[in-house]
Amino acid sequence: MKESLFIKLVKYFYGISKPFDELAREVINDAGNKIAIWLMEYLLISAYALMVLISWFSPMNVVSDVIIADIFVYLIASAYMGRIIKKINWIAMNLITKKNERFMVKDLLSADY
Questions:
Q1: Residue 16 CB coordination number (10 Å)
Q2: Is the separation of the CB atoms in 66 and 50 below 8 Å?
Q3: Which of the 8 DSSP states describes residue 1?
Q4: pLDDT in tens, 46-77
Q5: How far is CA 46 from its chain centroid?
Q6: Fewer CB within 10 Å, N side or C side of the chain?
Q7: In terms of C-beta density within 10 A (0-12 exposed, 13-18 middle, 19 or more buried), how is residue 19 classed?
Q8: CA distance 45 to 54
Q9: How many CB atoms lie within 10 A of CB 113?
Q10: CA 111 vs CA 99, 101, 104, 106, 108: distances in Å
Q11: Phi, psi of 112 (to 5 degrees)
Q12: Are 84 and 27 contacting, i.e. CB atoms less than 8 angstroms apart?
């Protein structure tokens, strides 16, 4: 299956070289959709707040505060996606070790001594 641009960017950003399975791809797409919707709502609210606050306060102060708030929101979104990626890697590692344990038990049971 061909990878989407979003999956390629996630893999590049977090330094993942292995391909994602279907569950991981679904979870990452779901998290990306949640982040996108949340960021759209934030941008809409901050745009209206910017228009109102510029009329009350100094425009330079308001714009610099909005830039700082944007950076903070970006860090929150990045941390959320990082948590999802770590959780997927942890699940994948547990599945791999469980599969390896099963194969090791089968090898031990079938070994000729």
A1: 15
A2: yes
A3: -
A4: 888 888 888 898 888 888 988 899 899 989 98
A5: 23
A6: C
A7: exposed
A8: 14
A9: 3
A10: 18, 15, 10, 8, 5
A11: -95, 120
A12: yes
Maximum CA pair distance of the chain?
85
- Percentages helix, strand, coil for the chain (3-state, rounded to 5) are 85, 0, 15
* CB count in 10 Å sphere of residue 88: 19
- pLDDT single digits (tens) 84-102: 877 777 666 665 555 555 5
Q: Please say whether the beta carbons of 62 and 53 come within 8 A.
A: yes
Q: Which tokens in the block code for residue 41?
A: 């709502």
Phi-psi region of 107 (alpha: psi -120 to 50; beta: other; left: phi over 0): alpha
Q: Which two tokens stand for residue 68?
A: 């700082």
